[in-house]
Amino acid sequence: MIYTLYLLFWLYANYLVNAKNVNQCIDDPNGTTPYVIPEGQSILYYDPDVTIAADEPFSTCAWVPEGYTDTPARDCPADAQYVLTPSILMASSLQLRKTMTQAQRFIINSSSNKSIEYFQDITEMHCSIQYYSCYNYTEYLIIQNVIKNFIWNSFTLTFNNVTCDVSNSGIYILAGADSSSQKKLFRFVDKLEKQINNEGVQIKLSRIEKFHMTIAAANYTYPSDCIVDKLNKQLVPTFKNKQFGSVLVCCFRMLIGDTYTNYYAQDFNQCIDDPNATAPYVVPEGQSILYYDPDVTVAADEPFSTCAWVPEGYTDTPARDCPADAQYVLTPTIPMGSSLQLRKTMTQAQRFIINSSSDKSVIYFQDIPEIHCSIQYYSCYNYTEYLIIQKVIKNFIWNSFTLTFDRVTCDVSTNGTYILAKADTPSQRKLFRFVDKLEKQINNEGVQIKVPRLEKFHLTIASANYTYPSDCIVDKLNKQLVPKFKNKQFGSVLVCCSHMKIGNTVTKYYAQDCNKNHPCVLDIKQNKIEYN
Fold first, then answer.
1. Is 73 helix (H, G, I), strand (E, B) or coil?
2. By the 8 A CB rule, do 244 and 96 touch?
3. Residues 218, 367: one domain?
4. Are residues 239 and 317 in the same domain?
5. In Å, how far from its chain's centre is CA 16?
6. Whole-angstrom distance between the N-terminal and C-terminal Cα of the chain?
7. CA within 13 Å, CB half, 8
8. Is residue 508 part of a domain?
9. Which of 124, 120, 126, 58 is nearest to 88 (CA)?
């Protein structure tokens, strides 16, 4: 009886394992390299006459050169040890990040992954333009110079389906560029290499393989045919427009030594960091960053000369920034994350910044689900004051109102610079009246407001250090992006509640005329905005 039960359990367990693997792509332990590299021969050697056997697990893959090496001492002649690989970084594309991540997850769930060598780091996904491997120093300098002075215009690329390549190094699962994009890139390379040839450098290996982004690399036992077929039939059709995504290419980059250098299209003007920029006010050692000197002036030659000098009103480190007997902080805010229009426009603004500046000096981008408009910063109050401010805010009576965010501005404080979506003039009046009424009630309860609200109301798009080209990016956003928005503005909302974090809990405070089951803000149409 026990043996029978054991046998039934064993059969059921095997059934579950087999059921799980029914839709799995299975490794082929008999998969072998289509070309055995003779001892002493470089992996960069390419034999165009190699054919791939029909019974290999990668029979549908294209046989291509292994054009790149990161070990030139091993793979290149002793007198030609230099390598250059211009590539188009794709990580700033939200759609490509999403679809490439989905493709990698699909692979993980659809194969054993024992033979996967690596998955491409999504933050470094790219399309290599060409592999210039094994050049001597003179040739290396000439290629660099030609690339530096190469004149080209921006162009669009689309990646539409999954393919695979096989080389001396292994298998590559790829997101392939569509036929139109292939033509653009081959023309780009042809024009570039004609100029390199004209400077006396012979290209060692022409671009043969199709342009792509690498999803994953694997060894020869990996079931490439199976996974490519599954991805194209089961995953890609679920993507928007049934493709990985389309991008506008405005620059490519190349690693020279330990530094990446960007090369921009002639029709794309980049905002450049100013390494000589300095803080408009140097905080003395031991002084709080919350200290505000109203007499500070911003120099005209600073990259943030158009920004407003404002107090750094908030601190999340009161132990460092506040007196020992006044360690409490409250920040009532209006959460904007429920506004579809604001989420869209703020995301577009952040992408524009990524594509229009180097981002080296960007400290952070505001998390889109957490976008908000701070009402006031109550920093460095004692416990009694803290309780009184809480009570006044809890009992404060107010009616809902509309807000519109219309253009980009910037602020500069003791902490850095901020790129902002500013509330328009009628919205500023409403919010300043709101704060004035609230703080009169706080004063009536015996609490003196330490720093009145000085800066204009806004949504933070990004924060940066002082070297960031704030003037340039604000100008570009207002001239090139904001006019494309609906009604030429970030968006308009009806404000029904504010919220405030007390300890680890966020409490909401509703307008007396709003339904507490509604979101804090609601998108409204332009013709329904009340300028009161």
1. helix
2. yes
3. no
4. no
5. 41
6. 85
7. 5
8. yes
9. 126
- Report which of 173, 189, 171 is spatially closest to residue 181, judged by C-alpha positions: 189
- How many whole angstroms separate alpha carbon 423 and alpha carbon 446? 31
Note the helical H segments in 92-247.
94-110, 137-149, 179-198, 224-230
Q: Average pLDDT of 292-308? A: 94
Segments forming the whole domain that contains residue 145: 42-264
* CATH code for the domain of 385: 3.90.1140.10
Helix axis angle, 383-395 to 425-444, nearest 10°: 120
- Give the pLDDT band of residue 293 (cuts 50, 70, 90): very high
Same domain, 255 and 343: no
**Residue 511 pLDDT > 90:** yes
Q: How far apart, in whole angstroms, are the C-alpha atoms of residue 410 and residue 417? A: 7
The number of folded domains in the chain is: 2
Give the whole-angstrom CA distance, residue 266 versus residue 45: 36
When pLDDT is cut at 50, 70 and 90, the band that residue 248 belongs to is confident
Task: Determine whether 134 is exposed, middle or buried from the number of CB atoms within 10 Å of its CB (0-12, 13-18, 19+).
Answer: buried
- Section 451-474 average pLDDT: 96
Would you place residue 4 in the very low, low, confident or very high pLDDT band (cuts 50, 70, 90)?
Answer: very low
Q: Does one domain contain both 318 and 441?
A: yes
Q: Are 180 and 68 in contact (CB under 8 A)?
A: no
The full DSSP string for 226-294 is HHHHHIIIIIGGGSGGGSSEEEEE-EEEEEETTEEEEEE-TT-PPB---TT---SSPPPTT--TT---T
Average pLDDT rounded to a whole number, residues 143-149: 97
If asked whether residues 222 and 353 sit together in one domain, one would say no
Strand partners, 212: 176
In a domain, 29, yes or no: no
**Cα angle at 285 between 283 and 290, to 5 degrees?**
45
